[in-house]
Amino acid sequence: xxxxxxxxxxxxxxxxxxxxxxxxxxxxxxxxxxxxxxxxxxxxxxxxxxxxxxxxxxxxxxxxxxxxxxxxxxxxxxxxxxxxxxxxxxxxxxxxxxxxxxxxxxxxxxxxxxxxxxxxxxxxxxxxxxxxxxxxxxxxxxxxxxxxxxxxxxxxxxxxxxxxxxxxxxxxxxxxxxxxxxxxxxxxxxxxxxxxxxxxxxxxxxxxxxxxxxxxxxxxxxxxxxxxxxxx
Length: 232
Fold this sequence. Notes:
The chain is built from seven helices and six strands. It starts with 11 loop residues before the first strand and ends in a 9-residue tail after the last helix. The protein has a single domain, classed as 3-Layer(aba) Sandwich (Undecaprenyl pyrophosphate synthetase). The chain is globular, with a radius of gyration of 18 Å. The longest helix is centred in the middle third of the chain and has 24 residues, at 71-94. 43% of the residues lie in helices and 15% in strands. The chain has a six-stranded parallel beta sheet, sandwiched between helices. It is of the alpha/beta class. β3 (98-102), α4 and β4 form a beta-alpha-beta unit.
């Protein structure tokens, strides 16, 4: 395990969790088995980030484009999200984790909306890691929603701060580090405004195999970089 400087960790870590389907296919299993294994990876990473003292972890959990998947798979995913919230609630509470969700949440199934709202409310008194689930999330849609909210408020002109304050992630620091698993070299409509100066880290590891050692390797790589923010 690499030695990490606890004073130089990212405040906000974002992860594109990719590779569940390929993991299942390689093992001759149904896709749902890959998604279930992915929940176990979420458990490991949330615990790792909490232990490391990272302030915010945003996980790309379900995109607006994911509705195009087969109806059975989408239904299975919605049920799995509800199951995971119930299964992980006690562990999140024990580890002082707060919960937040970002996306067009009103378009999620009613039972999942209720499970999510209940978990957010019951964990709001915690003071540790903020786990931000990007659910029914698309960054272009987020920016459109922010623009429409600002127009509706009567704004005649807007600043960058106005836009940031109207996004789903309002109040959170922008990500310092974006991790993508499975080796794909794209950001897939995820946090396009917020990752303007984020460091990118791509690993070939499929999400269900991603563990504490892979998290620490990404954090060590991040600490080895000199962040320039557009300067020389």
